[in-house]
């Protein structure tokens, strides 16, 4: 399996990368960890004439606190997310999710930026970012802009990212101390995309849900933010009847494809099961 | 398309070469450097038979272009034995514990186990299974591969082998 020929570029700065991509237009693609794009190129499902490798750009790496936010460079790998003490401490949902992405070899190279920018509904991080209320920093020839993850995804491989733009960083509002979290993913085997998965963040006060956010993976052509389900749960003690109602509300917004992972109805039900489990685990981890 | 000049280290030796940008690292290693230890199995990033060590990371060399490895330090199965030619503890473990049958997955398994044991000197069985979950073996059922890696960990840690074999 040999990809179509292409020219390789390795810019040293975001500015240089953006200038190159603007010049190349539809004939250029940014290369991050390459673990979605390279397989696509080998299958000739993608054949860009030019690859702009972002690996040489130091400013795209690393995790740092910035005021009330945590900022993660787009080229930070899943492996580095798992190893980050700052993330383990402040947003453990990210390492929990990263550990369920693909396999060890792929996590060494696969990046957060690639995972969220690709627009593949099978990727895990988009629903997590939707759940966390993250923002994406995007740089294009005309400057920088910030896009909410909740408004970024338009369809399969369709995002708010325009030709020539590079997603440079992910900015996440630091979750409240003592929050509960969980990412529950059903997959057929190691390395598979989710049949269905659910991300949950919540805070509890006096045994009741004070705030709650839910993201769903791979049960529509975009990640889903289950707003109604979260609203139903807020103020409850996460009792069984309320969870049932919330799960029904979450299932109602799904529209999965029937494919090798199962018929649509099954995948919708599995989204509900994953949400139930994630709520249970998030509750057990929340303080307050 | 213009070829690119790359310089890298492979098994301790400096290598300079001209490659087409679309040349995958596995093809560069096998066809240009004649290092046929890393195997082409699935070619779709699943099986791990092509695993090599690159700058302290285990990577599937079928899913990275050789140009991306410019400047890298790579180790393949050919570079794993001790300098005096004796087997590395992981190789010895695979022999002693029958960690292979057909042997096709073995170079990838050993290179992955090599990095795993660099990061975690004394992994539990569960950690070993999770650590090699990107490598497929169709013969062994993994049990003896896990034992082989446990053997190697014990040997590298200086634990008496009798105990490790139990």
Task: Calculate the mean pLDDT score of chain B and round it.
Answer: 95
Q: What is CATH's topology name of the largest domain in chain B?
A: DNA polymerase, domain 1
Secondary-structure class of chain A: alpha+beta
In the CATH hierarchy, the architecture of the largest domain in chain B is Orthogonal Bundle
How many discrete domains of chain B?
A: 2
3D architecture notes:
The complex is a heterodimer of chains A (288) and B (166). In chain A, 34% of the residues lie in helices and 26% in strands. Chain A has 288 residues and is α+β, with helices and mostly antiparallel strands. Chain A folds into three domains: 7-56, 2-Layer Sandwich (Uridine Diphospho-n-acetylenolpyruvylglucosamine Reductase, domain 2); 58-173, 2-Layer Sandwich (Uridine Diphospho-n-acetylenolpyruvylglucosamine Reductase, domain 3), CATH 3.30.465; 181-285, CO dehydrogenase flavoprotein, C-terminal domain (Enolase-like, domain 1, 2-Layer Sandwich), CATH 3.30.390.50. In chain A, β6 (135-140) and β7 form a beta hairpin. In chain A, α9 runs antiparallel to α10. The termini of chain A are far apart. By secondary structure, chain B is α+β, with helices and mostly antiparallel strands. Chain B has two domains: 4-79, Beta-grasp domain (Ubiquitin-like (UB roll)); 89-165, [2Fe-2S]-binding domain (DNA polymerase, domain 1, Orthogonal Bundle). Chain B has six helices and five strands, in the order ββαβββααααα. In chain B, strands 2-1-5-3-4 form a five-stranded mixed β-sheet, covered by helices on one side. In chain B, a hairpin with a 2-residue loop joins β1 (4-10) and β2. In chain B, α2 packs across α5. The termini of chain B are far apart. The A-B interface holds A 1-8, 10, 31, 34-35, 38-39, 41-42, 51, 53, 55, 79, 102-106, 108-109, 190-191 and B 1-2, 4, 20-22, 24, 27, 43-46, 48, 51, 57-60, 62-65, 67-68, 70, 112, 116, 130-134.
């Amino acid at each position: 399996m040999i990809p179509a020929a292409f020219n390789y570029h390795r810019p040293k700065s975001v500015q240089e990368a953006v200038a190159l991509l603007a010049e190349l237009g539809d004939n250029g693609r940014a290369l991050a960890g390459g673990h979605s794009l390279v397989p696509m190129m080998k299958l000739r499902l993608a054949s860009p004439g030019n690859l702009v490798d972002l690996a040489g750009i130091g400013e795209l790496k690393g995790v740092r606190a910035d005021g009330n936010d945590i900022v993660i460079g787009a080229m930070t790998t899943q492996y580095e997310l798992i190893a980050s003490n700052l993330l383990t401490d402040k947003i453990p949902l990210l390492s929990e999710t990263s550990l369920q992405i693909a396999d060890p070899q792929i996590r060494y190279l696969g990046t957060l930026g690639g995972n969220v920018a690709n627009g593949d509904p099978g990727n895990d991080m988009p629903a997590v970012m939707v759940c966390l209320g993250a923002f994406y920093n995007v740089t294009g020839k005309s400057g920088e802009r910030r896009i909410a993850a909740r408004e970024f995804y338009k369809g399969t491989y369709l995002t708010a990212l325009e030709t020539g733009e590079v997603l440079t960083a992910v900015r996440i509002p630091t979750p409240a101390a003592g929050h509960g979290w969980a990412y529950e993913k059903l997959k057929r085997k190691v390395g598979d995309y989710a049949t269905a998965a659910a991300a949950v963040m919540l805070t509890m006060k006096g045994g009741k849900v004070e705030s709650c956010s839910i993201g769903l993976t791979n049960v529509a052509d975009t990640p889903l933010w289950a707003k109604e389900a979260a609203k139903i749960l807020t103020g409850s003690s996460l009792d069984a009847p309320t969870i049932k109602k919330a799960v029904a509300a979450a299932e109602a917004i799904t529209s999965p494809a029937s494919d090798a992972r199962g018929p649509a109805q099954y995948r919708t039900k599995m989204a509900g099961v994953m949400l139930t489990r994630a709520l249970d685990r998030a509750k057990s981890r929340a303080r307050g | 398309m213009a070829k690119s000049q790359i310089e890298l280290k492979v098994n301790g030796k400096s290598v300079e070469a001209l490659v087409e940008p679309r040349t995958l690292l596995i093809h560069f290693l096998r066809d240009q450097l004649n290092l046929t230890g890393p195997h082409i199995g699935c070619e779709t990033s699943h099986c791990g038979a092509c695993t090599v060590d690159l700058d302290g990371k285990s990577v599937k060399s079928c899913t990275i272009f050789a140009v991306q490895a410019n400047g890298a330090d790579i180790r393949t199965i050919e570079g794993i034995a001790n300098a005096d030619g004796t087997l590395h503890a992981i190789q010895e473990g695979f022999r002693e514990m029958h960690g292979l049958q057909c042997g096709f997955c073995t170079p990838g398994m050993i290179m992955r186990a090599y990095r795993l044991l660099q990061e975690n000197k004394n992994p539990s069985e569960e950690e070993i299974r999770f650590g090699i979950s990107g490598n497929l073996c169709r013969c062994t059922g993994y049990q003896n591969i896990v034992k082989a890696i446990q053997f190697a960990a014990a040997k590298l840690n200086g634990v008496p082998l009798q105990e490790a074999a139990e």
